[in-house]
Amino acid sequence: MAQEIIAPLAGKVLQLNIAVGDKVEEDDEALVIEAMKMETPIYVPCDGTIKQINVKEGDEIEEEDVLAIIGKE
Amino acid sequence: MVDGLIIFIAGLGGVFLGMALLYTSIRVTYLITSGFDKKRKKND
Amino acid sequence: MIEKLFSLFKTSGIFYLTPGILVMWAVAFTLIYLAIAKDYEPLLLLPIGFGIILANLPLAGLMDPHEGLLWKFYHYGIQWEIIPPLIFLGLGALTDFGPLLANPGLIFLGAGAQAGVYLTFFAAHAIGFNLKEAATVGIIGGADGPTTIFLAAKLAPHMLGSCAVAAYSYMALVPIIQPPIMRLLTTKEERVIRMKKSRKVSQLEKILFPIISTLLIIILVPASAPLISMFMLGNLFREAKAVARLTHAAQNELLNIVTIFLGLPVGATMNAEIFLQTKVIFIFFLGLFAFAVSTATGVILAKFMNLFLKQKINPLLGAAGVSAVPMAARVVHKVGAQADKKNYLLMYAMGPNVAGVIGTVIAAGIFLTLLK
Question: Which residues of C touch A35 (CB under 8 A)?
Answer without folding.
Answer: 346-347
